[in-house]
């Protein structure tokens, strides 16, 4: 099990961006890094550090995915036909925890992962408790009947922080949604600029 116990907002501080666009992010008040050296003057980053930062942003956004698993997504993206960076985004957006987050069944990717692990989600009527499960076009994702009235679900569905993207369809009265099609990078509503092309450069060095 990879170590994800660090505060998720430390990722924001370290990267210097409000990764999930949340009002409570500490970056809104402190735009420098954490720790006693966080306010040092920044030097011009090297190409390597720019690529590394792009990778860390993408990994962090999807709930701080472990390096081994993230590398597998890169390898699969390379194997597929078409633009490798677009393929990488498509694979990440098909993760069940990403889909549950996008459908506004959970307030953060971390909450979505926990929600799935605890058995609250079904895919095409079958319980799935694996957050990294890859959803296919046309799959129906639903909150289980006994979980539909949980406060965390209702709060997430009513949140005005973000909208459900067009490649998904959702009915919040039934707490049910569908994955309609492969998203392009331009379709994904990232609060910050993501640069998967730099991630591809990082791994292909």
Topology:
Layout: H1 8-15, H2 47-61, H3 67-79, H4 84-93, H5 96-102, H6 109-117, E1 121-123, E2 126-127, E3 140-143, H7 151-158, E4 168-171, E5 176-179, H8 196-203
Antiparallel strand pairs: 1-2, 1-3, 3-5, 4-5
Helix pairs in contact: 2-8, 3-4, 4-8, 5-6
Task: Describe the 3D structure.
38% of the residues lie in helices and 8% in strands. Strands 2-1-3-5-4 form a 5-stranded antiparallel sheet, with helices on one face. The chain has helices at 8-15, 47-61, 67-79, 84-93, 96-102, 109-117, 151-158, 196-203, and strands at residues 121-123, 126-127, 140-143, 168-171, 176-179. By secondary structure, the chain is of the alpha+beta class. It folds into 2 domains: 7-90 and 189-202, Ribosomal protein S4/S9, N-terminal domain (Ribosomal Protein S4 Delta 41, Chain A, domain 1), CATH 1.10.1050.10; 94-183, Roll (Structural Genomics Hypothetical 15.5 Kd Protein In mrcA-pckA Intergenic Region, Chain A), CATH 3.10.290. The chain has 8 helices and 5 strands, in the order ααααααβββαββα. This is Small ribosomal subunit protein uS4. It comes from Komagataeibacter rhaeticus.
CATH fold-level assignment of the largest domain: Ribosomal Protein S4 Delta 41, Chain A, domain 1
State mean pLDDT (0 to 100 scale). 87
What would CATH call the homologous superfamily of the largest domain?
A: Ribosomal protein S4/S9, N-terminal domain
- The class by helix and strand makeup works out as alpha+beta
Approximately how much helix is present in the residues? 25-40%
Strand content: 5-15%
Distance between the termini: 28 Å
The total strand number stands at 5
* Highest-level CATH class of the largest domain: Mainly Alpha
Number of H- or I-type helical stretches: 8
Oligomer: single chain
């Amino acid at each position: 099990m990879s170590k994800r116990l660090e505060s998720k907002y430390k990722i924001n501080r370290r990267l210097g961006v409000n990764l999930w666009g949340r009002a409570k992010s500490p970056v809104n008040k402190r735009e420098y890094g954490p720790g006693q050296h966080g306010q040092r003057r920044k030097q011009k980053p090297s190409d390597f550090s720019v690529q590394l930062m792009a990778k860390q942003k993408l990994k962090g956004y999807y709930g701080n995915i472990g390096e081994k698993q993230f590398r597998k997504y890169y390898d699969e993206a390379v194997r597929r036909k078409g633009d490798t960076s677009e393929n990488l985004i498509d694979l990440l957006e098909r993760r069940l925890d990403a889909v549950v987050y996008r459908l506004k069944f959970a307030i953060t990717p971390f909450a979505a992962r926990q929600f799935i692990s605890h058995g609250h989600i079904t895919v095409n009527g079958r319980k799935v408790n694996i957050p990294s499960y890859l959803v296919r076009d046309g799959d129906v994702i639903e909150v289980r009947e006994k979980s539909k009235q949980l406060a965390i679900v209702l709060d997430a569905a009513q949140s005005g922080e973000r909208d459900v993207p067009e490649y998904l369809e959702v009915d919040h009265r039934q707490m049910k949604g569908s994955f309609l099609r492969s998203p392009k990078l331009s379709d994904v509503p990232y609060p910050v600029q993501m640069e998967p092309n730099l991630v591809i450069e990082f791994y292909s060095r």
